[in-house]
């Protein structure tokens, strides 16, 4: 465990050093992220001006939007940075080099790079939007509610990791799908809407099979609604399930992986 | 001309060989529009949107799916990589104009992409029959020139963005600016009618205005022939400007280029 923490620390340190080396690049991406936040906010404001979104009032939707922006850091700053390289690693045969290292292969492909510039604007922007939304709702958060919120954010992140990793594991089973890493990030945007927006079969699919409807909803609702224990249980069970299934698919995939150059 | 037909044939075979990838690109284009369609339906069911407005908004989303499929260009992302790592050099040794070859590849890609639209339209007709607006065939015919104009404008803008990689390191940031501009200013995310008048006025002075707003307005709303002609002249003027800009930048870039390792 200590070894993994040390490696993780050195990966984070190297990523930060790399970003700081190219300062203009760092500032440019910071500006781009801020511009995305602004354009997303314009989009959100126009939609909420038309009417309430599903079961949420505009202030509640603003809190959920803040949570979504906050969680963009793990999605883009951590997962995308690592998983977007996996298809190329597999198709070029460079994955071999990582497999020979004396550490867990899933750990090494999941933790090599981090993008700090994605984090700064999204975390600050996300927290700001959450606070504005709560202020408009005139809700004060109790310490227990805050702990539950942080816990649910962590579980939601674990669920996202499981789903995202499972989707990119498909590259081990096919000849070439170099754009598979975009699939999850595209679906992630749909998680900004409350699950009540979807009805019938679509709602069941988006809650249990591709559970994008709960990974942002449940943490966000902890802040402004009475705890819905069913959603909590489902969120936790799905996080465990997707972590387990992605691990299994990865290991099975590796057993049939033959290097591109061999 | 024969050379470019041959390039188009190779591109067609590539699309067939890597159909998994092209299917994922299609799904990625479809997802954002799908969740917006669910949002409009949910708003209508909650009584926040009149049925006629819902039908218009759904028609807008479906039309934008077609527009993205038929007119968009995404090659600048990998072209920037090729310019930066020097692999573009191989293209300069071939007996053709690289921008024209790219145009041939992009056109084939767009025509191939239409195949995926057919089954989706069948699903839309079944699922959304109560909201579907069937445009008059004359409106459909009038929209076609605008799709061609939008395709060329997007192609030239993508090429201009890519040529910046010959000069600056952060040229990928420009791709994000393009996405934001087409989403907000072009009406790719929401109809411009929901934005303030001054915003619509500013948008009308940009080429992005002719990517979504103009073609969909002509398709779904009765528009006078004079107005259509005015839009067409303005759209063609922008296409001419972008064509001249791409020629200028490409020529300057090629003169400046020195390959990695040379």
Describe, in plain words, how this protein is organized in 3D.
The complex is a heterodimer of chains A (262) and B (262). With 262 residues, chain A is mainly alpha-helical. Helices cover 76% and strands 0% of the residues of chain A. Chain A has helices spanning 2-21, 23-50, 58-70, 72-83, 86-92, 95-99, 105-110, 116-137, 143-169, 181-190, 200-209, 212-215, 217-224, 229-255. In chain A, helix 3 (58-70) packs across helix 13 and helix 4 runs antiparallel to helix 8. Chain A is globular, with a radius of gyration of 19 Å. The two termini of chain A are 33 Å apart. The model of chain A has no long low-confidence stretch (mean pLDDT 86). Chain B is mainly α and 262 residues long. Chain B has eleven helices and no strands. Chain B has helices spanning 2-17, 19-45, 51-71, 76-85, 89-92, 98-127, 137-163, 172-184, 197-203, 213-220, 225-256. In chain B, helix 1 (2-17) packs across helix 6 (98-127) and helix 4 (76-85) runs parallel beside helix 7. The radius of gyration of chain B is 20 Å and the shape is globular. The two termini of chain B are 32 Å apart. The mean pLDDT of chain B is 89. Chain A binds chain B through residues 22, 24-25, 28-29, 31-32, 35-36, 39, 42-43, 46-47, 49-54, 174-180, 182-183, 186-187, 189-190, 193, 196-199, 202, and chain B through 18, 20-21, 24-25, 27-28, 31-32, 34-35, 38-39, 41-43, 45-46, 48-49, 169-170, 173, 176-177, 180, 183-184, 189-190, 194-195.
Q: Report the total helices of chain B.
A: 11
Helices and strands of chain B, in N-to-C order? Answer: HHHHHHHHHHH
Give the number of DSSP strands of chain A: 0
What gap, in angstroms, lies between the N and C termini of chain A?
33 Å
Characterize the largest beta sheet of chain A: strand count, sense, and whether it forms a barrel: none
Mean model confidence by pLDDT of chain A: 86
Note the main sheet of chain B: none
Percent of residues in helices of chain A comes to: over 70%
Q: Helical percent range of chain B? A: over 70%
The helix count of chain A comes to 14
User: Which oligomerization state do the chains in this entry correspond to?
Assistant: heterodimer
Shape of chain A: globular
Order of SSEs of chain A:
HHHHHHHHHHHHHH
CA radius of gyration of chain B is 20 Å
Indicate the structural class of chain A. mainly alpha
For the termini of chain B, the CA-CA separation is: 32 Å
Number of strands of chain B: 0
Strand content of chain A: under 5%
Structural class of chain B: mainly alpha
């Amino acid at each position: 465990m200590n070894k993994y923490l040390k490696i993780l620390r050195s990966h984070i340190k190297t990523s930060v050093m790399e970003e700081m080396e190219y300062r203009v690049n760092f500032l440019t991406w910071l500006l781009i992220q801020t511009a995305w936040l602004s354009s997303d906010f314009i989009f959100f404001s126009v939609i909420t001006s038309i009417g309430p979104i599903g079961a949420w009032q505009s202030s509640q939707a603003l809190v959920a939007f803040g949570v979504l922006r906050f969680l963009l850091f793990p999605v883009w700053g951590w997962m995308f940075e690592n998983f977007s390289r996996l298809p190329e690693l597999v198709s070029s045969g460079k994955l071999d080099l990582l497999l020979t290292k004396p550490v867990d292969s899933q750990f090494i492909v999941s933790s090599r790079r981090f993008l700090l510039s994605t984090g700064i604007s999204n975390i600050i922007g996300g927290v700001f939007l959450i606070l504005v939304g709560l202020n408009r709702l005139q809700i004060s958060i109790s310490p227990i509610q805050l702990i539950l919120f942080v816990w649910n954010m962590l579980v939601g992140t674990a669920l996202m990791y499981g789903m995202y990793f499972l989707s990119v594991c498909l590259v081990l089973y096919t000849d070439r799908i170099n754009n598979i890493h975009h699939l999850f990030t595209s679906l992630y945007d749909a998680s900004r809407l409350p699950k009540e927006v979807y009805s019938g079969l679509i709602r069941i699919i988006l809650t249990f099979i591709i559970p994008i409807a709960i990974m942002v909803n449940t943490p966000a609702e902890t802040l402004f609604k009475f705890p819905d224990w069913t959603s909590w249980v489902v969120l936790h069970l799905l996080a465990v399930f997707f972590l387990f299934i992605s691990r299994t698919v990865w290991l099975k995939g590796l057993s049939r992986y033959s290097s591109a150059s061999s | 001309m024969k050379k470019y037909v041959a390039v188009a044939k190779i591109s067609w075979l590539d699309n067939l060989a890597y159909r998994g990838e092209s299917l994922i690109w299609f799904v990625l284009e479809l997802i954002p529009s799908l969740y917006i369609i669910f949002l409009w339906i949910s708003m209508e069911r909650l009584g926040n949107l009149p049925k006629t407005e819902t039908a218009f908004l759904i028609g807008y989303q479906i039309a934008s799916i077609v527009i993205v499929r038929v007119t968009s260009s995404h090659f600048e992302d990998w072209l920037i990589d090729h310019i930066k790592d020097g692999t573009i050099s191989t293209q300069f040794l071939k007996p053709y104009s690289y921008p024209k070859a790219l145009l041939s590849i992009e056109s084939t890609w767009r025509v191939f992409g239409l195949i995926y639209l057919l089954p989706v339209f069948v699903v839309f007709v079944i699922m959304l029959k109560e909201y579907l607006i069937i445009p008059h065939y004359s409106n459909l015919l009038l929209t076609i020139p605008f799709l061609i104009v939008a395709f060329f404008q997007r192609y030239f803008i993508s090429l201009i963005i890519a040529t910046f990689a010959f000069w600056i390191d952060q040229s990928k940031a420009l791709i994000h600016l393009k996405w934001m501009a087409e989403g907000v200013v072009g009406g790719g995310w929401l109809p411009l009618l929901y934005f303030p008048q001054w915003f619509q006025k500013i948008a009308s002075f940009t080429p992005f205005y002719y990517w979504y707003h103009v073609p969909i307005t002509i398709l779904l709303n009765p528009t006078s022939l004079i107005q259509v002609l005015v839009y067409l002249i303005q759209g063609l003027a922008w296409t001419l400007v972008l064509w001249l800009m791409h020629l200028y930048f490409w020529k300057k870039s090629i003169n400046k280029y020195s390959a990695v390792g040379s």
